[in-house]
Design goal:
Number of domains: 1
Order of helices and strands: EEEEH
Largest sheet: 4 strands, mixed
Shape: elongated
Structural class: mainly beta
Helix content: 10-25%
Distance between the termini: 59 Å
Strand content: 35-45%
Strand order of the largest sheet: 3-2-1-4
Number of helices: 1
Length: 64
């Protein structure tokens, strides 16, 4: 009845002209800030974070 709670971590996606967004590693739900639990699947977030600097790809688009 009382099983283990799912654990996950936030993947921070940084953008060039927009605010950073956070993706749940378990379900892919998006959040504008790193919350203690995922609003999509309810997973408890660990302290581990991964950064995905998407702004680098966005900068390559503008590079002439």
């Amino acid at each position: 009845m009382f099983g283990r709670k799912k654990k996950a971590y936030w993947i921070k996606k940084e953008h060039l002209f927009r605010r950073a967004e956070y993706l749940c590693s378990a379900c892919g739900a998006k959040s504008d800030k790193p919350l203690a639990a995922c609003p999509g699947c309810g997973a408890v977030m660990t302290r581990k974070k991964k950064t995905d600097p998407e702004w680098i790809e966005e900068m390559e688009f503008y590079d002439i």
